[in-house]
Structure formats: C-alpha cells, structure tokens
Amino acid sequence: MAGYALKRLMTEYKELTTRPPEGIIAAPIDEDNFFEWECLITGPEETCFANGVFPARITFPQDYPLSPPKMRFTCGIFHPNIYADGRVCISILHAPGDDPTGYELSNERWSPVQSIEKILLSVVSMLAEPNDESPANVSAAKMWREDRAQFEKIADSLVRKTLCLPASEV
Amino acid sequence: MEGVMENVGGLMQNIRRRHMSITEMTEESVRLGVAQMDTGFKKIKEMSIMVLETGLRLPGLLFIELLWRYQGFSFEDISDDMMKQTPLSYFDIPTMLDFVHRRNFDHHAAIILSYFVIFISLMFLTLPLSRLIRMYSHFLSVFLFGVAYKLSAIYVDLEMKTGEEELKLDGLIKLERHGFHFLAQMLLVVLQSMLLEVDGEPWRVALPVFALPIVARMCGCPMDKLKNAHNYACTGTMIFIATYMLYRAPSLIKSTKTALRQIKAVFMVHGLADGVAVLWRKLRILELLTFTWITMFLMVLYVELIDKGRTWSEVGRILLTGVAETTNTPITLAALAVSVSYVCKWIADLTKLITGGTRSHGHVLAHSGYTEAVSVVILCIQTGFLGMQVEQKTILLALVLYIVISALLQSLFEIIEVVLLNLPSSPTASRARHARCICIALLLVVIPFFTTKTMLALLPIDIYTAIIIANSATVTARAIGVILKYIVLIVETKSEEPWEGIDDLTYYIDCANKGIELLAAKVVMVFGCMQVVKVGFSFATFAILLFHVIVNIYKRLEHTVSFIKNRNAAVKNINRLSKADVVQLREREDVCAICFIEMKEEARITPCKHYFHGPCLRKWLAVKMVCPLCYTYMKEDDFDSKSSSSGTLNEVQQNEEGAAVEENPENPEEQPEAPNAERAPGDMFDWDDLFGFRAERETRNRNEQRIHGARDMWPLLVDNDAYESDSDAGSEELVIEEENNN
Question: Which residues lie in coiled coils (chain A) (predicted)?
C-alpha cells in the first residue's frame, strides 16, 4: 500500500510548504521519490549549536505512517543522542511497542498521528537539551557531562565547518 | 530569529556561489566527460577480449566432444555412409577418410593421435590469451611450412617435365619460373619469421630451406640429383621444427610451474569454493559451454533445414530433434543446461528492462536462470537421457523444456508482480511504462494457455503433464489477480478519501487466487489417484503424489486458513467501534489524524471519542491496540462498556458483526491400494529434486505472500537492528498537540 503513504507524504509536503516552521526546511529529494526527504535544521538559539545549519536525510518506509521513518545527519555532528554515522536516536522515531528496558513510556514512541514537522521539532529540542542517560555516542555524552567547555568548543567548530568558515582562533 | 535566518541564508548563498564558479564547473564537466569516455572504452575493450577469448577457445571443447562421441570406433569401422548420417556431413569428410585410409594408421598411431588431440584441446582451454594467440600463430606457421613444401614439390615436378639437362639462362623469359618460385619462398619465410618470433641469426638462415632445390637447379645441378635437394630440404625442415620445439621446451616447463604456483595462490587466498569460482570465471567455462552448444545446435538446424529439405511448418519438431541430437555427452548436457540458463536470464533481464523495475530482493540464483539449468541437468541425469534413442530423447526433452518454461513463467511473474504493485504509487511514471507492464502481465495470462495447448498436442496426458498444466493455471490466476490489484490501487490513488472497500477487494482477490491454486492442486491429486488405479501402482508415482499432497495441498491450505483468520480478526476489531454520522462529520469539519485527509463521508469513533477513518484505524489497530492520539488501551471489555455508555449520548450505533465464517478444510481422500506392478526403469521419473526446487521457490513465494498478505493488515515489519541496544531515556517532555481534539 505505497499509495496510501504517498498521499500522506504529499499532504505533509504541502503543509510544510504553506506553513514552514521556523528554522526548518524539509522537502523530498526529487519528485520521483517521495520516500526520501532532505532537510536543513538550524541550531537552536542560546546553545552551543546556535547559528549552525545541519543537513539531514529522512527515509520513509512503504507502510508510513504505521511505521516510523529513519533519520540521519549527513554532516558530522557531535551529540550524545546521535550515532557516529549520523543516525538519530530519539524516542519519537522508535517503533511502537513497549520498551523492554523501561526508559520510554509508550505514548512517547511513534504513533501515526505524528508528522514530519513534529519529528523535526523534536530533533531541534534534542539538540538544545541532550539526554545523557542512554546515549548513542558515549564519548559525546561523557564529555557533555564532565567537560562542557570542550564539548561546546567542538560544537562551535562543527558549526563553523557547516558554514564553511575558517576555524576559530581561540 | 528572522534576522539570523536571513543572514545565514545570504551567507550560505554567497558560499555556494563562490564554490560553484564557472571555472570549476567547466573543469568538472571536462573531467566527467573524460571519465565517461574512458569507462566506455574499457567496456568495449573488455567485451572484445571476452568474445575473442571465447572464440579462440571454442575448438578445444569441440575436439573433446568429437573424441567422446566417436571414442568407441576405430578407423576401419568409419565409413562414408555412417559419416553422412552425422551432423558434420557438409564438411569434406570423404576426402579426410580417404586420406586416413590410405595412410594405413595402426592402433598405436591412433592412440597417439587421440592423446595429441586431447593435449591440444586442454591447451586451448587453459592457456592465457596471449599464449593462445601465439599457439594459433604456431599452427599457422606449420601450415605455411606445408605450403612451402607443396611449392617446392611443384617446382621439382615442373623442372622434371621440361627435360632440359643443362639449365641455360640465355633469356629473361627463362628466369620467370625460378624467380617467381624463389619470391614465393621468400614471402613465406618472412611470414614465418614474424609468426615464430625468431630471435637469432642461425634461425633466420635456417628458415628458407625449401629454396634449396631452386638454388641448386640454378647452380647447374643435374636433373637426377634435383630430388635429393628436395629431400634435403624436407629433412632440414623436420630438424628445424624439432630443434625449435626442444628450444622452447624449457620455457614451457617454466610457464607451467608459474601457472601451478598461481593456481595454488588463488586457492590459498580465496579458499576452495571461491577458488574454484575464480578459476571457473577466469577460464570462461560458461561462455565456452554456451557457444559450443549454440554452434552444434545451429549446425544441426542447418543440416535439417537445408540438406533434408524440410519446411518451416515443422519448426517445433525440428528444434526438439536438433536439441536431442546435440545432447549426447556430459559436455553437451552441461552446455545445454548453461544455454538454458542464459536464455532464461536474458528473458528475465529483458522483462526488467521493459518494465523498468528494480532488482528484487530475492535470492540471486532465483533470477539468474540457474534454477532452470539445474532442473534440466538433474532431470536428464536421473532419467538416463544420454543413453536413449533419438525419439525417446525428443519426447523426454519436450517434457523437460515445458518444465523449464513453467519455471520461467513463475520467475517472470515474480518480477512483474513487484513492479505492478509499486507502479500506482510513483507519481511520475509515464503512461508508456504503465502500458508496457500491463502488456507483460497480459502476456503472462496468455502464454500459459498457448503452452498448455502445444504440450497437449505433443505429449500424452500424464501425471507430469498434469502438474505442468496446474502450474500454468496457477500462473494465469496470479497474473489476473495482480492486474486486478493494480486497477484497485489506481482507483485508490486517484480517490480523495480513503476507500473502505479497497481492503475488502484486495482480500477477495487474494482469496480467489488461493482458491484457484488449491483447486488446481486437488485436480492433480485426483488425476494421480485415478492413474494409480488404472495403470497400476508404482513407487515413483506414489512418491510424486505424496510430495504433491504435502507441499501443494496441505501447506497451501494451512496458509490460506491462517490468512483468513487474520483477516477476520482485523475486521472484527474495527467493527466493534461505532460509526460517525454524516451530520456529525459536517459539524466537526475535522481531518483524520492518520492520513491528514478530511473526514466527510465515513469515520469511526474510538471509546475515547476520537474520530478516524475506518481503513486508517483498522491498519493501525493491527500494529497496536491503542488510540493513536491519546494511547488509551482499547480492549474488548472497554468496547462494550464504552459503547453502552455512548448509547446514552443519543449517538447512532451501528454495530456490524463481521462474518466470521471459517472454511473447514476437506480431508484428502485416502489413496486406494493398487496391484504392485512396476514400470520399466526408463520411465521412472523422479520428481523429488524438481519439487525440491519448486518447494524452495514456493517457500520464498509463501514468505512473500505472507508478508504481502500481512501488509493488508499492516503488521509491524520494522527491522529493529538500528535501535537494538540503545534506547532513549524518557526525560524529554514531548507534548502531543491536541489540535484535533478541538
């Protein structure tokens, strides 16, 4: 039933085009393939990721919205909840079903009433407030807890890298 | 925030503009063009090398084939009448036989000649391309030596006929014969020098030995001594060849050692199985077998059509006779299998090219034609195909080829099914592509009928033909089902609101398909039982029937029953919820939170008072029995209490009970005992291996069918490998927007 998912993706694309949320740009890669989207996420204000623009890619399954999509950043980003290869680990993208480890409540996992806009807003919120209790990047989580200045320094260098600016002289 | 966004946007545009300057674009374009040209040249070169290498290696297999075919004969038994019966009759066989008979070969010479031919054939098959070309040049130089010998003999005969005792060069006209012969000898010497790559002055001086009679005659040699000069030249040639071979022998031994060392390295690096695969690919055995079989088959067709004067109306029987006559040895059997494999692979690739479908996720062997090839080999081996007469081989080969066609049709169906079910959801697919896919699906409906008709005309009705007919009927039914599903999906894509009847239609199509499959299987079983009663009991037929009952009837029945049960459970879940009225929907002016489309005609109300489309909610409840919005559990007792409490709100309740009628499986008839009469061993046709392959295919089909049938109920099919070990803690406060509740 790929047509069912396609209609919903088209509706969401129309909605994102007419009422784009602040700091987020998302669209399909090309008109032939609505199941692969590309998006730009702006780092939230007053955080170490501020002024950064991070490209990411979202891949939708054929039975969307019954199953969640997969999201990964295509630039190098250093964050406790993002794997080294860019995959995003966030509760809204986890498949519905009770978490056996007990960290997540079931109503925070994927549901068909979620949308691309909510996914991206959750990712922006994750950038602002990392969750270091069950990290995807252990070294980033440890650094964020124990050496915040170093973490912010690395984040700032990554922001400059995404903007193609020279490295900071600090 | 907006100011920062504008600055960032402008900055990024400047950065992009600086990065994509005209110069860099130009350089990149030139680089890409050069790379594409290089790639094209490389591909053309590889293709040319492959064709050249295969063509050069072809005589090796042909020689081995001829040796195997005539290994039982001796030279005295070979006669003109027998040779004219063979496919090689348009060669100059009588002249060769006359030559052989007049030479009076004895037994030992024949053995030596056979070993020499085998050695040459193995060299053809195993040498690298450069050395293969050099070997051909050596053969050509030997041929040139023969030409030189012939010219020298002609010269001596001509001089003998003139009768002049003393050669007097008193006019230019008398130099004509001598000069031309000398010039011809020099030309041959130059060609040989280039071919043999002679690198030494003594070798070059020794080459023009057949010019000796001419020089001797021109120096005043008497007539009776001229033959001695010719004999000296022949002796010199033989000495030269022997010396050349002895001179080259150390190089040959060294090359052999190097080759063995390389082979050992290949096995050490890749292991045994992969090493065999590497050698197989490097020696181009597949291409060799295919070209060998095609060459012999074309020769047989030429003999049948041109020499025997048959017409084109007997093409089918001519083709079968040709295939039967060319398949006499294990080499040609392997060649036939490989050819069948390549033909099936080309047909499958052509179908993919026409439909524009991507490569499916099935096993790689399933789409390369290897299944058909292995089926051909195993069936021919088990029936003793190689030892049969031509008529028996023709009939059995027709049966084998129809089995191959049946397997090929199923492969094509697997290709077209994936493409047709995904095509309605791609927005920019052209109408031509839709038309092509529909045409191929219609061909899959028509071709099984044509195959069945021609098969019944050629072969008697048997348990084997019955199974082939059942498989053809199955392919036809599945193709019709895929076309109907395609139409339903097209209608769904073009409709505005999700259509509740669409799942019902898909479900009924699947049920009809499964019913037809079960019906065909039962007909085959009944026919087999009747044949056991009539003809008599045989272990082969009993084994076939038992395997058929287990694989085709019992497992399909089990799968169908589970499919129906899942469907009824889903229908029952959605029918417990009450339907919303059209007036209610107009008052709310709401959209379904699952598909984001307005609810105008139809909606279902959950116990927690949330509205969704019926089809959308049914799909989600198959994944998880909770409300998508508020995650309230919806259990069976909650339905009853909520629906009774909602009755007090004066809402219209329409509780439709789903049709939970389950089909009772019929018990298969017990097979009656028949008198124990065994058939001839040649008619024993063991289908276990064929059913092994077919069962494997049906296992994959069943898995795909289960996935596809289960997708109608939208179960959870996400691979959890990415999120296996790491799970995010629940510290994030994600407030679900309740706009839909307003």
Answer: none
Do B587 and B540 sit in the same domain of this protein?
A: no
Q: Which residues of B touch A164 (CB under 8 A)?
A: 15, 19
A41 bridge partner residues = A24, A54
Give me the residue spans of the domains in chain A.
Answer: 4-98+113-163
Q: How much is the pLDDT for A116?
A: 87
DSSP H helical ranges for B303-429: 315-326, 330-355, 370-382, 390-422
The residues pairing with A27 across neighbouring beta strands, listed in sequence order, are A38
Q: Give CA separation, B677 vs B174, B382, B541, B670, in Å.
A: 91, 21, 12, 20
Q: Give the C-alpha separation, B420 to B397, whole Å.
A: 34
Nearest chain B residue (CA) to A69 = B718
| Crossing angle (nearest 10°) for helices A138-146 and A148-162 | 120
Give the residue-averaged pLDDT of A111-133.
84
The answer, yes or no, to whether residue B698 has pLDDT greater than 50, is no
Q: Which of B596, B728, B736 lies closest to A91 in CB terms?
A: B728
Confirm whether B116 is domain-assigned. yes
| DSSP-derived 3-state class of residue B537 | strand
Q: What distances in angstroms separate CA A3 from CA A9, A63, B426, B427, B484, one per listed residue?
A: 10, 9, 8, 9, 16
Q: Does domain A4-98+113-163 have CATH number 3.90.226.10?
A: no
Number of domains chain B contains: 5
State residue B671's pLDDT score: 34
Q: pLDDT band at B158, cuts 50/70/90?
A: confident
For chain B, the farthest-separated pair of C-alpha atoms sits apart, in whole angstroms, at 141
Say if CB B455 and CB B468 are below 8 A apart.
yes
Question: Which two three-digit tokens encode residue B228?
Answer: 């001695």
Structure-block tokens of residue A36: 């692969």
pLDDT above 70: percentage of residues in chain B: 63
* Among candidate residues B536, B553, B576, the one where a domain is terminated: B576
Pairing state between β B604-605 and B611-612: antiparallel
Put simply, the chain B residues between 308 and 347 with a CB less than 8 A from any chain A CB are none
Structural domain contains residue B728: no
CA A114 to each of CA A91, B231, B583, B596, B736: distance values in angstroms, whole numbers, following the listed order:
12, 100, 28, 11, 8
Name the range with the highest mean pLDDT among A110-114, B122-126, B594-598. Answer: A110-114
* Closest among B553, B529, B523 to B541, alpha carbons compared: B529
Mind telling me how many Å the CA of A139 is from chain B's nearest CA? 14
CB contact under 8 A, B726 and A135: yes
Instruction: Give B388's pLDDT tier (boundaries 50, 70, 90).
Output: low
Predicted confidence at residue A56, as pLDDT, reads: 92
pLDDT in tens, B290-333: 777 777 777 777 776 666 665 656 667 677 777 776 666 777 77
- Of the pLDDT bands very low, low, confident and very high (cuts 50, 70, 90), residue B75 is very low
The neighbour count for residue B190, using CB atoms within 10 Å, is: 13
Mean pLDDT of chain B: 69
Higher pLDDT: A132 or B740? It is A132
